[in-house]
Amino acid sequence: MRRLLPFLAILICGAVLGATRATEPYDLKLLDAQFRLLRAGFPRPAAREVVVVGIDDDTARRFPEPITLWHAHLSRFLGAMAQVRPAVVGIDIVLPDRSYETVLPGSDKLLMKGLLEARRTFPLVIALTVDPSGKPRTVHTPFLTLAGPGGAGYALFPVDPDGVVRRFDERLGETGEPVPTLPGQMARHLKIEPRAGLIDYWRGAPFEYLPLHRVLEWYAANDQQALERAFRGKPVLLGAVLPFTDRQLAPVPLAAGEPGALDTPGVLLHAQALRNLLGNGLIQSVPGAVVAALAIGAALLWFVSASTSLIVAGLAAIAVVLYGGSTWLLTQGWLAPVSAPLLTAALALGGRNAYDTLLKLRERRRMRASFSGYVSPAVMEEILAGHIQPELGGVNKFVCVLFSDIRGYTTRSERMSPEAVIHFLNRYFEQVVALIHARGGSVVSFMGDGIMAVFGAPKPLDNPCREAFESSRAILKYVTELNAQFRAEGEARMDIGIGLHAGEAVIGHVGSSTRHDYTAIGDVTNVASRLESLTKEAGYRLVCSRVVMERLGNSEGLASLGPMAIKGHSPVEVYGYDKA
Q: What dihedral do alpha carbons 544, 547, 549, 552 form, nearest 10°?
């Protein structure tokens, strides 16, 4: 039940993320990247192209009046369009809200003439906008009247919180009510009812616009062929493509002449939306229930227990699959948000990995607390790291084995109570064990008053013999200090013997499957034990073999005792240290 609680939390989290679209900002950034990938690697033409006539810097220089007073130029443009009958024309220039007859006599009549001529020959939509307070900005009534029913639409887009235009939606009223838009009205004139959705920035090449002054030059030169080729039967949008006028952010560059620029002229955004409306349609989001179901499915990954490396590899594979699948769906006109399922998968796999790690840490702490007193720290670390397996058997290693024993222990213990014996031994072993561990040795056995330690296993040492010898010297020094304490306490002094031998030994578990010890087995162990027995006979508290002496690097203080016979073994050349 304890394992199910985190799963249920992740399950609820995934369902909420999927149903509420809380991860939408990340999905939109991913959508932008997918559009860029598709446009770069898999470009597709628009089903129906839109011709853009641009008011650029060159046009602005040729016509010195403010755009507000361009009545004559707009009238001539509409006259040119009337000659070639385009499918529909949108004017993405907000016409004046008053008459300028007093400033430029005859200008209103020229523009009204152009509007009237246009309305008689092709569908026309003029742009509406709002003032800084958000209220609709009026257009001079005669101009609006001549545009006729369906002849005006707001040149507005909903803008995402990051300032990017990604959607077409006519629900732009103060309370969310639909209002006619410029591309929406143009689509209606072509018998297509616009539907809200995400603008498909994949289909269609970057826009190459025709400068307005060039169109008017064709018209003035009566170049009917050029006008026909450029506009007949096509949707047309006229608008500004100036550097600092009417620009908004798009996910991809739309202007062919501005590679890499996301700051896009508004007329190109309208043209891209119109491409969608007249072609394959806008992108629709898959139902929230589908995303929630994917996130719930990702939560089931909680039941997958694996190593950290496999978790990372698995998450990477899931990310690739989700990204690839959502990209393919995008080409089919569907947006499938993947952040919620991917985040849920990360929570499930990462959470389970963290949960398993916590359990392992708890188990290690429990084992350390339970068994740290039964084995040396080096052995415990290897067990916890999984380097020492519970199976019987071992491996061959070069080690140095230390045997130590208390001289006269039997006689001494006869005069002591059992409690006093235990106190005496623990007092001695407390420091001796610490000195062995300090040099990287492992105590593998206590034998009454004796102790056996191994240097070089399980913890590898550069020179096991030197570490064992230095540890032995430290023990002898401690015994000298302990005897001074005994003398002050009125207790009898104690003597010890230490034997050292090195060689190959089998290191591992010895015993039965239900009860075994971690120890060293081999001739090296037997010889070390026999050398410890020789200490009293040899007259030295420490006796080591030639094998150990040769690996010390400095034999100062060692006395050669020559070959000495040991029980059950051929003679061994030994050296004594610290004469008793």
A: -120
The amino acid at residue 375 is: V
Q: What's the full length of the chain, in residues?
A: 580
Whole-number Å distance between alpha carbons of 388 and 377: 13
Q: What 3-state class would DSSP assign to 394?
A: strand
Q: Is the peptide bond before 25 cis (omega within 30 degrees of 0)?
A: no
Q: Which residues, listed in sequence order, are joined to residue 543 by a DSSP beta bridge?
A: 499, 576
Element (H, E) at 239: strand 235-240
For residue 448, the one-letter residue type is: G
CA 448 remoteness from chain centre: 57
pLDDT tens per residue across span 34-64: 999 999 999 999 999 999 999 999 999 999 8
SS (H, E, C) 511-564: ECCCCEEEEEECHHHHHHHHHHHHHHHHCEEEEEEHHHHHCCCCCCCCEEEEEE
pTM of the model: 0.67
Burial readout 54-67 (b: 16 or more C-beta within 10 A, e: otherwise): bbbeebbeebeeeb
Tokens 């989001």 locate to 285
Q: Which two tokens stand for residue 216?
A: 């008017």
245 close to 268: Cβ distance less than 8 angstroms: no
Residue with tokens 């050029």, as numbered in its chain: 226
Judge contact between 455 and 399, C-beta under 8 A.
yes
Round to whole Å and give the CA distance between 230 and 51.
Answer: 8
> Do residues 34 and 383 lie in contact, with contact meaning Cβ atoms separated by under 8 Å?
no
Reduce the DSSP state of residue 416 to 3 states and report it. coil
Q: What is the mean pLDDT of the chain?
A: 88
CA–CA distance, 32 with 170 (Å, rounded to integer): 22
Other Cβ atoms within 10 Å of 366 Cβ, number:
10
- Dihedral angle of Cα 91, 96, 98, 99, to the nearest 10 degrees: -80
| Inter-CA distances, 156 with 83, 183, 239, Å | 30, 10, 14
Predicted confidence (pLDDT) per residue in 129-154, tens digit: 988 887 888 899 999 989 888 999 99
* Residue 404 contacts residue 496 (beta carbons within 8 Å): yes
